[in-house]
Amino acid sequence: MPDVNRGKRPLSPFMLGPYYRLQITSVSSILTRITGLAMLVAALLIVWWLLAASAGPEAFERADGVLTSWIIDIVMTLSVLALWYHALAGLRHLYWDTGRGLEVATAERLGIAAMVGSVILTLITILLV
Amino acid sequence: MAYMTDRKRATGRGAAGSGTEHFWHMTVTSVALVILTPLFVFVVGPAIGKPYADVALHFANPFNAIVTALMLVVGFNHFRHGAQTAIEDYSDGLTRKALVLATICISYAAMATGLFALARLAL
Predict the structure, then answer these.
(1) If contacts are CB pairs under 8 Å, which of residues 5-34 in chain A contact chain B?
(2) In the record, which residues are listed under signal peptide (chain B) (predicted)?
(3) What pTM value is reported for the model?
(4) Shortest CB distance from A12 goes to which of B30, B33, B89?
(5) Which of A43, A29, A72 is nearest to B33 (CA)?
(6) Contact assignment for B49 to A67 by CB distance below 8 Å
(7) DSSP 8-state class, residue A96
């Protein structure tokens, strides 16, 4: 049957909420995507910081001042949380790719594990780094 | 080649025309990042916020410089392909093409900038 509604269908992230009840599986999935994209900000900041360090002390002072400011400190801390979450969720995907862990109960447990695990790893990172 | 049918040429290559290449690329970079991520966090992390002399010395260390270089190359490649999937899910037509092109440009520009800075710091 031809799809008469082509191009006007609701897309996946906008289905969450109004059309679909939020579930651990869908929320943990969209979080993987959001964290992956959001880390670009921290990545570009670190690249800028590296470039500034290679350019000399004056340029470094400027970049260092920005990176150690409280607002960027919050951005970097959230990015560490995003990094650990994305890493654990990625491990889950690698496990799924072997054909294992796809039962709903297991998938939900793995999602919770990634969320709790990323908070724990972030706390460890804050303590150690 | 002259004897190959259109069907034979298309088999296994899918709608994107490149088969499972994208998926395999994500798998390879994911596995690499499982190792690189903790290394990067505990190698580069402590240097952020340190004074200039310490940072310069930090990246003069071969291990630190190599881990950072690998993270730049693998990380931005992983980002490029992952972001492409997200873009392709939510947009189409010219917008999609423009966004994918922009993602590729940003990823390679950041990768090259980071590697250049590292080379100048490390050598």
Answers:
(1) 7, 11-13, 33
(2) none
(3) 0.90
(4) B89
(5) A43
(6) yes
(7) H
Q: Do A40 and B79 touch (CB under 8 A)?
A: yes
- How close does chain B come to A73, measured CA to CA in Å? 10
Instruction: Compute how many other C-beta atoms are within 10 angstroms of the C-beta atom of residue A69.
Output: 11
Q: Which residue among B42, B86, B89 places its CB closest to the CB of A129?
A: B42
In angstroms, rounded to a whole number, what is the distance separating the alpha carbons of residues A74 and A126? Answer: 12
What is the C-alpha separation between A58 and A54, in angstroms, rounded? Answer: 11
Structure tokens at A106: 């297991």
DSSP state of B12: T
Look at A47 and B113 and tell me if their CB atoms are within 8 Å: yes
pLDDT at B15: 78
Structural domain including B102 reads 21-122
Given a contact cutoff of 8 angstroms between Cβ atoms, the answer to whether B72 and A47 are in contact is yes
- Answer yes or no: is B49 within a domain: yes
ipTM field: 0.90
* Mean pLDDT to the nearest integer, A47-59: 96
Query: Can you give the pLDDT of all 123 residues of chain B as single tens digits?
Result: 678 888 888 888 887 778 889 999 999 999 999 999 999 999 899 999 999 999 999 999 999 999 999 999 999 999 999 999 999 988 989 999 999 999 999 999 999 999 999 999 998
Domains detected in chain A: 15-128 (1.20.1300.10)
In this model, does residue A63 exceed pLDDT 60? Answer: yes
Chain A contact set for B90 (CB, 8 A): 11-13
Q: State the total domains in chain B.
A: 1
Helix or strand run (H / E) with residue B60: helix B52-60
CATH code, domain carrying B58? 1.20.1300
